[in-house]
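input
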Amino acid sequence: MERESDQKTKVAHVLENQIVIARSMGMENEMVLFLQEQKDWKRREWFYICAVDGMTISELQKLDEEKATISQIRKSRIEFLKNLYMSRDDISKEISKMKQDIDQTTKQSNRLQRLIEENLKAALQREAESKEQLLEEKERTIQVQKEEILRLKKQLQEKKESPKEIEKESQEVELSKKEKIIPKKKSLRFWKKKKKERFLADCLKDEKYTEEQIDFLLGCLEQGMDIRELKAIASPNFSILVMQRLKKLQQKEEE
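output
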C-alpha cells in the first residue's frame, strides 16, 4: 500500500512539475489547461513535447479526442516536424532564389548604370565638339563678312571716282567731234617725207586700225605733230578718246 501511495505521490509531483514547466515556457493558458486535464502523465508528457515543438492546441485536442496512443502521438509529432522542416527548406530555397535574383538585379543595375554613365559622357563630348565646330564656323563667317565689307567699300570708292573720269572723257569726245577730219586720200598729199610715209604705210597695212583712228592720226600730222610724238600715242588698241588724252599730256609736258 505504501508503495502504491508513493507511486501516486510521485505521479502527482511529476504532473505538477509538468504544468510549472509549461507555464515557465510561456505557453498559452488554453494549452496549460489542456495539459492539466490529462491525467496520464506519459500522454501529458508527449502532449507537452508536441506543444513545445509547435503543434497547435487544435491538433493536440484532435489527437486527444481520437484517443491516440503514445505511439500515434509520436508519429503525429514526427509528421509535423517533417512538414515543418520541409516547409522551412522550401522557404530557405525561396530565400536563396530571391537572393540570387537580387544579386542578378544588382549586377544588371550596375551594368546599366555604367552604360548610362558612358553614354552620358559620350553625349557631353559630342556636345562640346559640336559647340567648338559652331564657334569655328561662326569665326569663319565673320571673317568672310569682313572681307566682303572691305571689297564693297573699295568698289564704292571706285564708283565715287569714276564719274569724274566719265565726265572728262565725255568732254574730250565732244572736243574730238569738233576737230576737223581730213579725208585719207587728201591727207596723203601733204606728207612726202620718208618717215611719215613709212609710218602711214604701216598704219594702212595694219588691219587692226579703224578708219576713224587713221583719220585722227592724219589730223595730228596735219597739225604739225612730230612723228616721234605721234608714234607714242598711236596704237590700234587705243580708242580715239585715249589717244586724244595722251596727245594733251604731251602738249602739257612741252609747255
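quick obs: The two ends are 182 Å apart (CA to CA).
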